[in-house]
């Protein structure tokens, strides 16, 4: 009897050992996370806190794909792209069909210039969801860059079928049709863009090219003249992308927002730049130059009243900020406030006597 009991005990103990050995080790993943790989000297405290928080949550739930995704998205939002790619992949190891990890992981590869890796991740989405709109849009752009125009057009058309009011989608279709030497169809698509975004400069450039391709040189020249004369034209198209928004909202670093804004501003994507500058301004409330930058973009959008308000705030924070006085003068001049504009340009010359732009403005107003 004792022998049987001892044997049963040994068998039970062995089974328990097998069960525990088969359970995922709590530290199997968390031990791989070295905080030093993500925390750099000079990093803002808010960013350090959010990264530390993500690591702690992974340590508590090392088998949670969601925790790895949240960490990857946070790294992605703060432009730690190579590390983000690694942790999107860890999320996918735990849940291979996790769509946000596939989509945003593909985008990090794309930004890093790893275009084929990006395409592989997006293809995994299309296998399960062939009509997924934003993935088709991204793959369409991949094909367009490769010169596979028919494939690109098919992808953009899938996107626009579910996003019929997307100016960006119609713009991509119009541009692709023009490259396929189908100018009449291209013009029909680009006309849809102008109904949504009438001041979009790149669309007008493409329309001019389409008219030339269609043999209507007079209309093309008319558009080209508009491009020369109309200072209100901007790059205004923005892709509304909820999957990407789930990443960008995680950014808590105001300097990251400023870096994004400067990139957008350099490429003429002023709507995106404005959003990023405003997010940065929420953190850096005493930054006069941020107020000035926001004001400049509002001038581009024709919102002179809003722009002047931001320039006023900038000057309240820094009464010696030359750019704010000059830009406020420009906004007031456009708004027909001649005397006030002259006063601002004169203030600039008090602070910086050789300022070329304010000098030029005063000369054009007959005040120098």
Q: How does the overall form come out from the CA principal axes?
A: flat
Low-confidence stretches: 19-30
Number of strands: 0
As a percent range, the share of helical residues equals over 70%
Element string (H = helix, E = strand): HHHHHHHHHHHHHHHHHHHHH
- Quickly give the CATH architecture of the largest domain: Alpha Horseshoe
Walk me through the structure.
This protein is mostly helical. The protein folds into three domains: 28-122, Serine Threonine Protein Phosphatase 5, Tetratricopeptide repeat (Alpha Horseshoe), CATH 1.25.40.10; 130-239, Tetratricopeptide repeat domain (Serine Threonine Protein Phosphatase 5, Tetratricopeptide repeat, Alpha Horseshoe); 242-364, Tetratricopeptide repeat domain (Serine Threonine Protein Phosphatase 5, Tetratricopeptide repeat, Alpha Horseshoe), CATH 1.25.40.10. It has helices at residues 2-22, 27-30, 45-60, 65-77, 81-94, 99-111, 115-128, 133-146, 149-162, 167-179, 183-196, 201-214, 217-229, 242-248, 254-266, 270-283, 288-300, 304-317, 322-334, 338-351, 356-364. Helix 4 packs antiparallel against helix 5 (81-94), helix 10 runs parallel beside helix 12 and helix 15 packs antiparallel against helix 16 (270-283). The protein is flat, with a radius of gyration of 28 Å. Mean pLDDT is 88; it is low at 19-30.
């Amino acid at each position: 009897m004792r022998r049987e009991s001892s044997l049963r005990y040994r068998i039970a103990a062995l089974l328990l050992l097998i069960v525990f050995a088969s359970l995922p080790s709590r530290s199997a993943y968390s031990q791989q996370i070295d905080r030093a790989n993500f925390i750099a000297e000079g990093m803002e405290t808010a960013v350090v806190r959010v990264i530390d928080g993500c690591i702690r949550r992974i340590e508590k739930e090392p088998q949670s794909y969601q925790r790895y995704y949240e960490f990857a998205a946070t790294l992605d939002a703060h432009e730690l792209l190579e590390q983000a790619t690694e942790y999107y992949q860890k999320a996918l190891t735990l849940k291979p069909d996790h769509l946000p990890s596939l989509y945003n992981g593909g985008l990090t590869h794309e930004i890093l210039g790893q275009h084929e890796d990006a395409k592989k991740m997006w293809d995994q989405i299309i296998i399960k969801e062939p009509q997924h709109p934003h993935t088709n849009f991204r793959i369409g752009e991949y094909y367009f860059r490769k010169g596979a125009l028919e494939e690109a057009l098919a992808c953009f058309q899938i996107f626009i079928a579910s996003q019929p009011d997307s100016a960006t989608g119609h713009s991509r279709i119009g541009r692709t049709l023009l490259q396929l030497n189908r100018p009449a169809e291209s013009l029909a698509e680009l006309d849809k863009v102008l109904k949504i975004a009438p001041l979009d400069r790149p669309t007008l450039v493409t329309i001019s090219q389409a008219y030339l391709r269609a043999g209507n040189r007079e209309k093309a020249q008319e558009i080209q003249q508009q491009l020369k004369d109309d200072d209100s034209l901007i790059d205004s198209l923005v892709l509304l992308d909820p999957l990407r928004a789930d990443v960008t909202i995680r950014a808590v670093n105001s300097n990251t927002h400023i870096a994004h804004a400067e990139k957008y501003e350099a490429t003429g994507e002023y709507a995106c730049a404005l959003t990023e500058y405003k997010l940065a301004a929420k953190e850096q409330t005493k930054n006069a130059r941020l107020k000035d930058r926001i004001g400049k973009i509002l001038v581009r959008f024709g919102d002179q009243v809003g722009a002047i308000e931001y320039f006023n705030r900038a000057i309240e924070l820094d009464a010696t900020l030359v750019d704010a006085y000059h830009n406020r003068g420009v906004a007031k001049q456009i708004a027909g406030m001649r005397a006030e504009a002259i006063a601002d340009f004169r203030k600039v010359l008090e602070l910086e006597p050789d300022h070329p732009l304010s000098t030029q403005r005063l000369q054009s107003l007959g005040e120098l």
